[in-house]
Amino acid sequence: MLFVWIALWAVALILLLADPRSPVNRRLSAVALCGGAGALAATLADVLIPYLHANHPRDSLERTLFHLQATSSLTSYYGLPYAYLLFAMAYHPKTASLNAQRVAALVLVVPILLCLLFTPPYNEYNPITYTVVVWWAVPYFLAGTGLVLLRRTHHYSLSHAHWLICLAVLPPVLFAMVMSYILPILGWHRMWIYNIWFVGIGVAVFFIGLFTYGFLGMRVLIDRRRLDSTLRAVTSGTAILHHAIKNDVGKMRLFTEKMQTYANATNQPELLEDIRVVQNASHHIQDMISRVHRRTEDLVIQPIEVELDTLIRDTIKTYEPLLHNIELHLNIPEGWRCTLDPAQVGEALNNLISNAVDAMNGVGHLFITLREGKRELTLEVRDTGPGMDKAKAAKALEPFYTTKSGNEANFGLGLPYAYYVMRKHGGSLHIRSKPGVGTRVYLLFPKRNVKAVKMKTQSDAAHADRREVHG
Fold first, then answer.
1. How far apart are CA 421 and CA 274, in angstroms?
2. Per the CB 3.0–4.6 Å rule, which of 14, 157, 250, 437 could disulfide with 432?
3. Residue range 158-165: average pLDDT?
C-alpha cells in the first residue's frame, strides 16, 4: 500500500501543479488524494504502528498515529465517492453551470455528514457502517461513471485524451467500489488490498498518457510552454537579424548608388548591369527578412466587437477565385458576436485556408465549420489533401518547419502564427491529420475570453414566429 499512497498523491500533486484553476484538475486531484488517504491508513495500520509498538513503544505517538489512521481511512471511504462524482460533473461539460455545481456539492455532502453523526464511530474492523454507506456511495460511483462515459467531444484531436482519462480513472474507481463498499456488506473484509493492481494500471496509463497524447491538457501545457519559448526566441532573433541586415543592406544601396553614378558617367554598361543585379539582390534580401520579421514580431492584439460569421465569410471570400476544382462547404451559423482582434484572427484563418488550398493542389473539398460548445466556440478548417503522419503533424507548429518544398516564399510560419494568435486570445489550436485522408485544424475560442454572445438573427425570429403560429 506504500506504493499506492505515494503514486496517488504524486498524481494529485501533478494535477494541481499543472492547472490549479481548472475545476476538473482540482476535483480529480481530490479523487487521487482520497484514494491515497486510504493507502496511507493501511500503511499506518499494517506497517508503521506495529513497528513502533514492537521497537519504540510510546503511547502518545501511537495514539497520534491511530487518530491519523482513522482520519485517513474515513477521508478515503467518505471522500472518494463524493470527490469522484464532483469530478464527473465538472468533466461532463453539459451537466450544470458552475453555480449549480457548487450547490450540488453542498447537497451531496449531506449523506456524509449524517453518517458521521449517526453511525458508530471508527474502529479498525468496521471503519464505516457499510450497510448504510453503500446506499449512497454506490449511486455516487455509478452516476459519476455515467457522466464520464457520456461526455462527447466534437473535435477529434481531443477524443484520444478522453479515452485515456476513462482508462486511467474508471477501472480503479469501479474496482474500489466493489472491493471497499460492496463486498464488505457480504462479509468479505480487507478486500481493498487487491486495489493495488488496478491503481497501478491507472497510474501507469496516467503517466503514459502524460508523455504521449496528454492528460487533461497537461501535455498541451508542456507543448505550449515549449512553443511559447521557441516563438519568443524566434521573435528576438529575427528582430536582431532584421536590424543588422537592414543596416548592411542600407550600406549596400548607398555604395551601389555611388557606383551607378560613376558607371553612368564613364559609360560602362556592363558595370551598370552588374550593379543592378546587386541592387535587386539587396532589395530581395530586405523584402525576405521583413516578411519573416512581420510574422514573428510579438503580437499586440486590439480586440473589438465583431460578428464572427461575417469575419469568417469575408476571409473566405478572397479565396473563392483561387479554389478552381476545390468544392467549398460552409457551415457558419450567424449571430455570434465576439470581442477579438479581427485583423489577427482573420490572418490566422487566412493561413489555415491557404495551407488547405495548397495541400489539395487545386482539387478536393474544403470544409469550414463553426460549432458551439458549452464553454467554447470551435472553428474547424478541414481539407481532403494528402494529410500528414504523426511525426509531421507533431512538428507542424514549430517555426520554420514546412512540408512545401521548393517554395522560397513559404517560411513555415503560418501555423505558428495562427497558434500564437489563439494563445493571445486565451484560446488554443489543435491539429489532426491522417495520410491519405486529409488534415483538420481546430481553433478553439473560450466564450468567456472572447465575450461571445449569441444574438437573435432573422432566421431565429422567423422560426419563433412559426412556433407561435403552430402553437
1. 43
2. 157
3. 68
Region of 147 (left: φ > 0; alpha: ψ -120 to 50; beta: rest) is alpha
According to the model, what pLDDT value does residue 170 have? 85
- How far is it, in rounded angstroms, from Cα 176 to Cα 73? 14
Minimal CA–CA distance to 221: which of 444, 428, 7?
A: 428
In the predicted model, is pLDDT for residue 431 greater than 50?
yes
Pairwise CA distance, residues 278 & 285, whole Å: 11
With a CB cutoff of 8 Å and minimum separation 6, the contacts of 449 are 425, 426, 427
Of 170, 166, 5, 178, the closest CA to residue 76 belongs to: 5
What is the pLDDT, as a whole number, of residue 78?
A: 92
Cα dihedral 343→349→353→359 (10° resolution): 120
Q: What is the pLDDT of residue 235?
A: 56
Rg (CA), the chain: 31
Residue type for 298, please? D
Report the C-alpha gap between 92 and 82 in whole angstroms. Answer: 16
* Cell output for 66: 491511530
CA distance 420 to 231: 8
